[in-house]
């Protein structure tokens, strides 16, 4: 293999792979998802490039202002010119651009390594199927054992790279903007909203006031994105000691990797009579 398992792990800061219990007691199966990883990688790279372009435009603007200031002001003769706010802003933006460029290169490196392991695993899997159909000989059995080992190693490497890639996904800042229900929402109604992303949970309660405004006990939550999980949102109505399920929906996070805050309106009921409004900032 062009990238051995030891080299993949030694060059990267890695999380443990996601292992799932198989039907056979004591055995573990890793389950990489190349198509999902590809979609997240493309969305992540696009979002990072958006940030890079925005800060490059800011740098160009600040540099232009700085040139005009040096040309038209007496500050050009000032020995403390480097201490003025504008040069400090320029240096700050330059540092951030370098960090973004490194971030993008690291993400590309991880995904390239992931693709190599994926192709190696596919090749070993195809060869394993071919040997399984051939007449059973000592040589073919030995080859099958070796191929099975190669498939397991590539699969394990892919899961470790997935864990390393997740470190570079950033954060989602989710803000509660309230429920929309028109005639369905009445003063005095109380609701509970439960948002889950993998093992991360956010439970908040709200009340419809007499002036139709809404009060919620929490307004913002930070979620750490991952490659495989979607947002699961459940809304229940609280009536004394009883709870009535309003609806459960899932929301993919792939469109949240962008520079601008995303306004999300989710249909909680099948007919859309109650909607949930959220804002997500990456």
Keywords:
11 strands; 282 residues; 25% strand; FAM65_N; flat; 4-stranded antiparallel β-sheet; 5-stranded antiparallel β-sheet; disordered N terminus; alpha+beta
Describe this structure in a few short sentences.
By secondary structure, this protein is α+β, with helices and mostly antiparallel strands. The chain has 4 helices and 11 strands; from the N terminus they run αββαααβββββββββ. It has helices at 5-10, 34-72, 85-133, 138-166, and strands at 19-21, 28-30, 172-180, 190-197, 200-208, 214-216, 220-223, 231-239, 242-251, 262-267, 275-281.
Write down the overall geometry.
Answer: flat
- Indicate the radius of gyration in whole angstroms: 26 Å
Number of helices: 4
Low-confidence stretches: 1-29
For the largest beta-sheet, the strand count, sense and barrel status come to: 5 strands, antiparallel
Mean pLDDT: 84
Briefly note the structural class of the backbone.
alpha+beta
Assembly status: single chain
Spatial separation of the terminal alpha carbons:
37 Å
Written description of the protein model:
Pfam families: PL48. Belongs to the RIPOR family. Residues 2-282 form the FAM65 N-terminal domain. InterPro entries: FAM65_N (IPR031780), RIPOR3 (IPR026136). This is RIPR3 protein. This protein has four helices and eleven strands. It has helices at residues 5-10, 34-72, 85-133, 138-166, and strands spanning 19-21, 28-30, 172-180, 190-197, 200-208, 214-216, 220-223, 231-239, 242-251, 262-267, 275-281. The radius of gyration is 26 Å and the shape is flat. It starts with a helix and ends with a strand. With 282 residues, the protein is of the alpha+beta class. Residues 1-29 have low confidence and may be disordered. The longest helix has 49 residues, at 85-133. Helix 2 packs antiparallel against helix 3 and helix 3 (85-133) runs antiparallel to helix 4 (138-166). Helices cover 44% and strands 25% of the residues. The chain has a five-stranded antiparallel β-sheet with strand order 6-5-4-8-9, with no helix packed on it. A four-stranded antiparallel β-sheet has the order 7-3-11-10, with no helix packed on it. A two-stranded antiparallel ribbon has the order 1-2.
């Amino acid at each position: 293999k062009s990238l051995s398992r030891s080299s993949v792990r030694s060059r990267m800061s890695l999380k443990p792979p996601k292992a799932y219990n198989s039907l056979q007691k004591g055995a573990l199966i890793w389950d990489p998802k190349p198509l999902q990883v590809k979609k997240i990688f493309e969305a992540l790279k696009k979002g990072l490039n958006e940030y890079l372009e925005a800060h490059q435009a800011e740098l160009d603007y600040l540099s232009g202002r700085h040139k005009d200031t040096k040309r038209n002001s007496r500050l050009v003769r000032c020995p403390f010119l480097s201490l003025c706010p504008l040069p400090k802003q320029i240096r700050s933006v330059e540092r951030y651009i370098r960090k973004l460029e490194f971030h993008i290169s690291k993400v590309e490196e991880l995904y390239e390594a992931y693709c190599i392991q994926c192709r190696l695993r596919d090749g070993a899997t195809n060869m394993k199927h071919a040997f399984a159909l051939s007449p059973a000989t000592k040589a073919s059995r030995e080859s099958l054992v070796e191929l099975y080992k190669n498939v397991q190693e590539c699969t394990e490497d892919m899961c470790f790279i997935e864990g390393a890639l997740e470190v570079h996904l950033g954060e989602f800042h989710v803000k509660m903007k309230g429920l929309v229900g028109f005639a369905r929402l009445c003063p005095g109604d109380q609701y509970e909203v439960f948002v889950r992303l993998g093992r991360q949970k956010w439970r908040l309660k709200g009340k419809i006031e007499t002036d139709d405004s809404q009060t919620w006990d929490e307004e913002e939550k930070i979620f750490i994105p991952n490659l495989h999980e979607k947002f699961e949102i459940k809304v229940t109505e609280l009536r004394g000691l009883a709870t009535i399920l309003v609806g459960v929906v899932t929301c993919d996070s792939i469109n949240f990797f962008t520079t601008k805050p995303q306004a999300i309106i989710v249909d909680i009921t099948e007919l859309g009579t109650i909607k949930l409004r959220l804002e997500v900032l990456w």
